[in-house]
# Entry
Amino acid sequence: MSFGTPPPSNEQPEPAPEGGSGGYGYPPGPPVPGYGYPPGPPIGAGGYGYPQAAGPNPYQDPPQQGVPNPYQDPPAAAAAPEAFPEPFPLSGPSSTEPDWEALSERAAKERRRKRMWAWGGAVTVLALLAGGGAFLLVSGYGTEGEDDKPDTTASGSPKPGASGTGENSALVAGDPTVIRDVSGSMGLRMGEDASVVPLGTRHEVKMRGNSKSYAQAPERVVDTTKSFTVTARLYNLAEKTSRIAVSQGDGESFTFELGGDQVNGKLTWIFRVQTGDKGAAATAVTVAAGPAPKKDRTTLTATYDAEKKTIALYVDGKPAGKAEQVPAIWQGPGPFQLGRSRHHGLWSGSWSGSIEKVRVFDTALSDEQVAAYQEGKLDSAVKPSHSWLVS
# Structure
């Protein structure tokens, strides 16, 4: 119900003649009860918006002798048709005058409630925007592009065991672009399109298969004139094109590379070393091992035994392919790399997928040691000289 709403669609009669019993808009005779006017005499004492029965009514003029009051209830003797039901019960004398004070108080409460809702909504929106902005800053990628020039940018040398940035223990404290070396002091600085992300309780570096998706040490990590072992756990997204996960060198050629290369139209796991200083294909020696599965996590382990002059490759802890004899491995210039390799003065083999659990040992692990490492049971006396993305 809203104040000022006309009564139900009854045709409005002419005003009653003077001296009659009707009021303005009602025909002569007893008033007919209608919407908002209950039949019969008033019930009980005052109600909502009406004064108490015992007190004066400040909103009603005093009765005048001989003048009909159109707002009074009809006499009890008058026959009354059925009236519309009241929107809420009235317990006092009928009156069309609302309780302005009560309405004002109700309106004030409603305004206060709306203000509280508005403030609460504004605070929620601001919190969501702040959280979204922080997420974008942390997880943003750079743009793709090609740069075939050698990258001479070197990372700092963080102290072993330095804590990560924020909650990411895989990064160097204070520099979210450098992957922390847990066992040594060779942090790996990432390119624009490489990023370290959580993987369960550990971390991995994600790479997008372009020239800006890599990580690089400030200098050589592996002494290729001596025995060594390099291992990494890989997640491959490529199918055919050459994809290198770990390598060393930034000059004319790599000194070694570990990852996948196309063999007979399929991506195959390989460990390749360069024996000549010119980087020619004729002086490279490769161990290949079966197809490289797509969207599957695989641990590759490569060893070089400087005494026996042999290189070997292991896939998930098992010997793969045939160990190859080499005269020696060329000790070329340039740093340790993740996600790319150097061929004829150009970067190639950009890794597409992710890399984790990268370790370098200054010894050639035996078949039994590689199997034990795969199961997490390698003798604690055999310690890596460098390790990244292992926590």
